[in-house]
Each structure stands twice: as structure tokens, then as C-alpha cells.
Design brief:
The protein is mainly β. Helix content is 2%, strand content 54%. The strands form 3 sheets. The protein has a 6-stranded antiparallel sheet with strand order 1-6-2-3-4-5, with no helix packed on it. A 5-stranded antiparallel sheet has the order 9-8-7-10-11. A 5-stranded antiparallel sheet has the order 14-13-12-15-16, with no helix packed on it.
Length: 185
């Protein structure tokens, strides 16, 4: 078992049946009263950030998340079907876990998924993907709001700002973490 004095950022804890990642941990001593460990914890399902204090030497349950490689197959209702590359089993991931990442999913993309037992807690996309532009907006010559960019719709359904020279059919490199255009491929 782990004690509260051993809590460090990056650890994963099970508190009241919920899984949290430790964002920060500080040992606090006060003139009057017992010392304590003050932490900031991020719920891995809801992404909510909470603060929690622990007594010194309080027992906490550390959990190990297992990272597995998944390959995206196709959407199925409100869930998304992936293939576990390690054991070739199909894994269904709820859209609530994927969030805005669904805008960059296309068949064959490999992602990293964090599991605790059979429950999936997080999915991480590759930082850079090459995606085809399927549609760009028509700009008016005197459109001052364009500022050298125009809106584009990608084959995955994502919308983003791209330079004026990008046309439908172009393949572009996209930063999935920043949701930005990088370059034409």
C-alpha cells in the first residue's frame, strides 16, 4: 500500500471508486495543527480538477493503468469501435471518453488507450496526422475577417483554419493537440 507521504505528480489513485491522476502534491506544515498533504487531482473520466488533503501516513490506493495500442475501425452509434493491436479484440469506446478527438478519427489511425482492468479511461491521438481537405469556404476578395486564412472541412469532419492556397483534395498535416494546420503534404 501507498501512504499519502509518497504521493507524487503523475501517480494514479483510486479514491472512493473513482480514478484520479495526481497533478500536484505539496506537504504542508502549520504552526498550530498537524501537517497534511495537499493535492490537486484530475478525474480521468470527467477531466474535473479537485483539491484534496490527506493526513500524514494516510493509506491511499495507487492503481496502475495499462497502456494499449488501438486502431480505429468505425463509429457505431454513440460509440467508436477500435481493434486492440495486442490481442486483436474489438474494443468499444464511448464518445464521452473521446471528446473532441472524434473529429480526427479516420480508419486505420492508431491511438494509445489507458485501461484500468477492462475500463478505458483515456485515449491519446498521435500529435500529427495527415488528413485530406474535402471542402474549403469561398472567400470574397474584400473579406477583412479572413486575415490570410479560410475555413476548411477535413475528411474526418473537423473544421479548421487553413492558408488561402489550400484547396479541396489537398492533404495537410494537422497538430491534433493544438487543433492547428501545420503544412501541406
Amino acid at each position: 500500500m501507498t501512504t499519502s507521504n509518497q504521493i507524487t505528480p503523475g501517480m494514479t489513485l483510486n479514491i472512493d471508486g473513482k480514478i484520479y491522476r495526481v497533478e500536484s502534491s505539496v506537504k504542508v506544515t502549520v504552526a498550530k495543527g498537524p501537517p497534511f498533504v495537499k493535492t490537486k487531482l484530475r478525474n480521468l473520466i470527467t477531466e474535473e480538477l479537485i483539491e484534496k488533503s490527506f493526513k500524514p501516513d494516510q493509506i491511499v490506493q495507487e492503481v496502475s493503468l495499462v497502456e494499449r495500442a488501438l486502431e480505429f475501425l468505425y463509429p457505431e452509434g454513440k460509440e467508436y469501435l477500435f481493434l486492440d493491436v495486442g490481442n486483436l479484440e474489438q474494443v468499444s469506446v464511448p464518445s464521452s471518453i473521446l471528446g473532441n478527438k472524434i473529429h480526427f478519427l479516420k480508419e486505420g489511425i492508431q491511438v494509445k488507450a489507458m485501461f484500468y482492468g477492462d475500463t478505458i479511461f483515456a485515449v491519446e491521438l498521435p500529435q500529427f496526422l495527415e488528413i485530406m481537405v474535402v471542402k474549403t469556404e469561398d472567400l470574397f476578395v474584400n473579406d477583412a475577417s479572413a486575415e490570410g486564412n479560410k475555413s476548411a472541412v477535413l475528411e474526418t469532419g473537423a473544421k479548421m483554419s487553413v492558408p488561402l492556397f489550400i484547396e479541396s483534395g489537398d492533404v495537410i498535416k494537422v497538430d491534433t493537440h493544438a487543433h492547428e494546420y501545420i503544412q501541406r503534404v
